[in-house]
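Record Transcription termination/antitermination protein NusA, 385 aa.
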Amino acid sequence: MSNELLDALDRLEKEKGISRDLLVEAIEAALVSAYKRNFNQAQNVRTDFNLETGSMKVFARKEVVDEVFDTRLEISLEEARKIDPNYEIGDIVEIEVTPRNFGRIAAQTAKQVVTQRVREAERGIIFEEFSDREDDIMTGIVQRKDHRFVYVSLGRAEALMPVHEQMPNETYNHNDRIKVYITKVEMTTKGPQIFVSRTHPNLLKRLFELEVPEIYEGEVEIMSVAREAGDRSKISVYSANKDVDPVGACVGPKGSRVQAVVDELCGEKIDIVKYSKDPVEFVANALSPSKVLDVLVNEEEKSTVVVVPDYQLSLAIGKRGQNARLAAKLTGWKIDIKSETDAREMGIYPREEPFFSEDVIMEANSQDQEQEHLLVDDELPQDKE
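=>
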């Protein structure tokens, strides 16, 4: 048993990275408890685990005193000097009290301690590994599901995907490979617990980082994301490099890059719009694919009134208000959409000074056409003139 234990300590140190000294310390502490529990001893003892021979001994520790009141904890000066003439009052005498059948108990205790420490070390390693992956995406394999979670294998650990983090248009079957966003990693009494999501807006962001080299290299930046998982999303992109078209970079040749993200999200429609520090231009871009005639801004209330052509009103609002709602989330501005006819009756359109220059209007319209052509078929209702 001794040689096997020593070999096991060596392997654990090499393979699991668990310090041998820490293991020995834990074994010795456990042996003290085992001795007191199995032999009904309440005295002060210590154990000695010999790393060379693998032998285990128990020593009772007693204080040298003039008058002995508790023989379990104290020893007289006379008795102490029989062991060693140099002992003085207040010294600690150690007397071996190893029971005859202690080897079997010691072996069992050591095995339990080693097993527990290995389990704790593995949990710690897994926790460290995945806590560094928070706010990142990983590819997992669906293991099983119940009414509360979908259980996703991430290799060394199993992650939990709660119901509210699951896509409403997806069915999760055993052995399905899916990309998930790690939202939280926490240590519990049962070990590390990892929570993942398929609905988080940052999943969309990370997928674009994988597909678009310009984002990974920092040439293009995703400024904001608005998402209604499984249905439709909008992202705003920006590039400080004037030679780089941020929208075109994310769309990719013949729409290949955005289509790869759409496929991963089971057909979720994605609008990519150009970010602008000017709220007027940003709001107009965010309402893509509808065309915008004018945007009136209220800085104090951080709200806007957007004027669109009559035939584009339903397109600008979207099904169940979805397009306008996503645009508001994307920009952080409240958006009130008015048709051109209503705006004229209210006297807010047209203004004396034009809202857009001809260049801006042409650029916005060309972006709308590019979105409609390259992204996904838009099912928003649209009236014809």
